[in-house]
Amino acid sequence: MKDTQLFESVERELNRQRNNIELIASENFVSEEVLQLAGSVLTNKYAEGYPAKRYYGGCQFVDEVEELARQRICEIYGAEHANVQPHSGAQANTAVYLALLQHGDKVLGMSLADGGHLTHGHPLNFSGINYEFYSYGVSKETETIDYEAYKKQVEEIKPKLVVAGASAYSRIIDFEFMAKVAHDNGALFMVDMAHIAGLVAAGVHPSPFPYADIVTTTTHKTLRGPRGGVIMCKKELAADIDRAVFPGMQGGPLMHIIAAKAQCFYEVQQPEFKDYAKQIIKNAKAMEKVFKEEGFRLVAGGTDNHLLLVDVKASCGISGKKAQRLLDEINITANKNAIPFDTEKPFKASGIRIGTPAMTTKGFKEEDFEEVARIIAYRLKNEETDEIKEECLKRVAKLTEKVTMYSNIKYI
Ligand code: PLP
C-alpha cells in the first residue's frame, strides 16, 4: 500500500529536478539504469564480508556484482585495489583514517575555509576530534594553494598522513609536488578526489594515481553514479583498508548501491563519458567568460575544472545566502559558499559555488551556460523586483523546456 503523502513529496522533487537549473557542484543526474539498480531487490540481501568470504549464505550473485564493481573501478584508474563498500565519501575517509592512524596522530589537510572538506580535519568532525589535524590553505594573492607554505608545514609538523583534495577549489591541484613533499618527510599521501573523480576518469584532469598511496572518492558527483564512496590503494594497504571498512566501521554493505556503482563504472568506461567530461569543463569556461564580461570577481581568477566560486559580496554587494535565495526564486539551484579569507560567517558567506556537471548531463552546451550566467548576473546585480524575477523565470523556463529527463518515471 502506497503512502500517498510521501510519494507526492517525491513526485514534487522529481518535477523540481526536471524543471530547475541545477548548479550544485557536487550533484548530478544518474542514468535510469543506475536508478533502477539503486532501487533493486539487492536491497534485501545481507552480505557482510567480501566476495567469496561472506558471513551469510546466498551471496553468489551479489559476489558477482561486487566483483564487477571492484574490477571496473580498478581498470578505470589503474588502481591496484578497490573497496567499493563505503556508504559515502565521509565513510570512505573515516575508514582510511581508521586503517592508517592511531588516535592523536598528526595529519595535514586542506582548510575547510579555503575549500577543503569537513572530513579533512574540521574540529567538529570525527577527523578533527580524533586526530591532531593541521591545515594548509591558499595564498591571499592568488587564492590558489600556497605550495611553499604547505612544504614548510610538512617539514615542521612531520604529519603521518597528508590529505589532498577539496570541495570548493576551482584550480588543478599539483598532486605530484604535494606527494613528493609528503613522501620526502615520511608521510603517507592520500587524495580525496570526490569532486573531480569523473574528470580524472576521463583523462581531462591530471590523475593523482601515480603519486598517491590512497585515493578516496564519492561516486555521485562528476562520476554520475549513486550516492556512495570508494577507497583505492596500493596492494600492501589493501588488507588494512578492507578490515577498516568491515568489520571496522560498517556492517552489511549496501548491495543495491554497489550494483548501481558497477553500472556507473560501466558507463564511465564508454567513449561518450569522455565527451561528457570534456563538455563539463567547456561549460564551466563558458560561464567564466560571461561572469568576467559582467564584471564579477571569481575566486582564484576562474576555473580549470567543473566549478566556479563567485564572490557575490565583492561583485554585487550581497551575501552568498541572499544570492542563493534570489536564485532559488528563479528556479536556479546553487549554494552559498565561504570564500578564502571570508569576513562573513559560513552560514551567510560571501560567495556562491556553481558547478556544471548536472546540467551538462541534461545536454546543456556552452551557449546554454552563457545564458545561465547572464541570467544569474541580471538577477544578482539588479534590485529585487517582481518584474526582474518574472523575466528571469521566463528565461529559465525557455532553457529547461528543451530538455527532457526521467520522462518514464512517475511516483504518483
Ligand atoms: N570529500 C569531498 C572532497 C567532498 O566534497 C565530499 C562531499 O561533498 C565528501 C568527501 C563527503 O561525501 P559524502 O557526502 O558522500 O559523505
From TrEMBL:
Report the GO molecular function annotations: glycine hydroxymethyltransferase activity; methyltransferase activity; pyridoxal phosphate binding
Q: Which reaction does it catalyse?
A: (6R)-5,10-methylene-5,6,7,8-tetrahydrofolate + glycine + H2O = (6S)-5,6,7,8-tetrahydrofolate + L-serine
Q: In which pathway does it act?
A: One-carbon metabolism; tetrahydrofolate interconversion; Amino-acid biosynthesis; glycine biosynthesis; glycine from L-serine: step 1/1
Enumerate the Gene3D superfamilies for this protein.
Aspartate Aminotransferase, domain 1, Type I PLP-dependent aspartate aminotransferase-like (Major domain)
**Name of the gene encoding the protein in the UniProt record:** glyA
Cite the record's note on assembly: Homodimer.
Please give the chief subcellular localization of this protein. Answer: cytoplasm
* Keyword hit for Cytoplasm: yes
Q: Where found, per UniProt?
A: Cytoplasm
Q: Which GO terms describe its biological process?
A: glycine biosynthetic process from serine; methylation; tetrahydrofolate interconversion
- The protein depicted here goes by the name Serine hydroxymethyltransferase
